[in-house]
Amino acid sequence: MSESATSPLPRPTSLRETALCDWHAAHGGRMVDFAGWNMPVQYASIVDEHLATRSSVGLFDVSHMGRLSVTGPGALEWLESMLTRKVAGIVPGQFRYTLVTADAPTALVVLDDALVSRDTDASDGTPRLALVVNAGNRERVVAWLRSRLPASGVELVDHTLDTAMIAVQGPSAVDVVAGLCSGGSCMRIRALGNYRGTTASVAGHAAAVSRTGYTGEDGVEVTVAASDAVAVWEAILAAAAPLGGRPCGLGARDTLRLEAGMPLYGHELLSHSDPFALGLGLAVNLEGRTFPGSAALATLKAQKPARVRVGLDLGSRRSAREGNVVLAGAGHTLAGGEVGVVTSGSFAPTIGHAVAMALIEPALAAEGTAVEIAIRDARQPARVVGLPFFRRPAGGGKPPAAG
After folding, report:
1. Residue 52 in domain
2. Global confidence as pTM
3. Is residue 387 part of a domain?
């Protein structure tokens, strides 16, 4: 770590703070403003934190993500009418990737992408569901959902500030967390399928544990009361450290998700995006359903998209950045012309060179197509490749996929 526990780095003021914020600042976290939250972008090296996650365990504070509960006798039916992904068939312990959309007079409005899950139903059979949404969109998503609540039968509660969420990612992550549990908790965590969750006692504290994440690695996300966050975080870190595990910031989380080809709201996914052009059709169930934006989505599905999401391999350490223009390569009829734009780009530590995601014209979207990226005053050659850039090796656990 670059700083000792006795010389914390300066912290931005007037920002929301997670229950782990003081710990990050005291242990060398470089704190930055992320979506209005005071968050660690890195501790020492983003590359080291990235590679530790790929090889062992990376520990991430993701408590800035919004955590909402939706309960009551009408909860299931109401969410079915509000989300792009079918909710009616979801079973207790299951998670699904979905979009939250609104209807506008002339276009679709994508408010966020989210995870919807179903907890164990109440003793009287009343369904209990939950949503995890992006930090930067939480307030508007909560406001939108509350504006559409029925007069009775559904209660929406925002638990973001009274809970903490810890992402434990990497090939040893499940073993580390399961090793801090006893009896049935340990066995339930080890038996979790991808996009499944359970309740557990982690390091002696009540927790919700889900086999989810945003890194392309196996792992779990652990949600606990805010008052238990530091104790649980330190217990997980103590168990992971002998294996090479370490605390990680948002910088490594971003390079990991880029290698895994995962879209990020504000980059690949925008309020006016076509989900089908982004390869997110799995999150949209239209048949026999009506929800805000469903008519606009049906129209988009029937159309040929102007641009589609692809991976770009730059073959060098020189990184492209969001907004860089993509140009048709030599030999193409559009040679030298603008055909797309980079949405995310970075050096990819696992791969050893730079990669990017971009939206480009379908005519150039075939794997192997040569393109160029305008980076400052030069043109960087690149080729279209399939996503993801990185896939967990066979035998290293189930690959990430929406449930």
Report:
1. yes
2. 0.93
3. yes
